[in-house]
Amino acid sequence: MATTSVELLSSPKYSNPYPSNARCYWKLQAAPNHVILLDFMDIHLQDSTNCEKDGITIYNGGGLSAPLLGVICGVNTDNVKPSMVSTSNQMFIAFKSDDTEPTYNGFSAYYVARKVEYCDNVTTIISEDTVLSTPGYPDGYSGKSNCYNQWLVQAPKIDDTIKISMADIVLPPNIPCVNCYMRIFDGPDSNSKILATICSATLADEYTSSTNELYIEFYTAFPWTGNSGIAANISIIEIPEVQHPNGNHSNHHPDDHIPNGSGYNPAGAIAVFVSIVLMTVIVYVTNKYKIRCSRNRRRRGSDHFALVNEMDT
């Protein structure tokens, strides 16, 4: 059970080598309306591609079928300490090792549950390009503490996407990620897919939404002063409009549209098709029937011609 008190979690026999062929699982559950924060302090695991040998897998829910929060392996440095935050009151952690000997010293982390409280109503940003920053930036943090600041970024056009680039991240030193972090979601709220959890400059990058909405949360356990804070550049990625011959516009990418040939006329094509069909019928009838003209005798002062059809057999 995850509580508001900090608890420790570690690999078997930490800080001695963990056993080979190990399989360990932890299910963390907090009270309703809480999230779980997991902060790694030390990681010494065997490194491999996609962490396929030894590794820690963190899930955003209560089991192995929950969405993935992250996979960790290798050896961390002092400047890179991964942190994970659930979006609900559950988190599931799985640790595995292969049969390689000798093993490494393992990992240690602490976790804590935190009640979800919001500082103010969500701030909605609808703009072509703008800068988003934490309250008080660049002179520290002047907003409320122990609550979430919220931003909802919306692109003006529904087919556009949003790119956020972390321009500046300066936070007070020696603060665990669970006490000060920013989360970026690919969608309109915290139920959307997590793109990133950021708490240091070493974890900064740029991220792009898959829709025209991007939701951002920032949490800090306390205010601070000094030349610090977070700033990010927000830019809109527009899908170019395609001008159709009839004057209509489309926001689909040009490669998604296959234009008609130059001068193409649907009505003319239909007329040609009908003409071909009629010619085919006439040729068929001509070959199928013999048409002969016989002159009848003149009656009542006029000539009369009769068409006599004889079917070939």
Automatic annotation (TrEMBL):
Residues 1-114, 119-237 form the CUB domain. It comes from the Eukaryota. Keywords: Disulfide bond, Membrane, Repeat, Transmembrane, Transmembrane helix. InterPro entries: CUB_dom (IPR000859), Sperma_CUB_dom_sf (IPR035914). SMART domains: CUB. It holds the Pfam family CUB. CDD domains: CUB. The keyword Disulfide bond applies. The chain crosses the membrane at residues 267-287. This is CUB domain-containing protein. It comes from Trichoplax adhaerens (Trichoplax reptans).
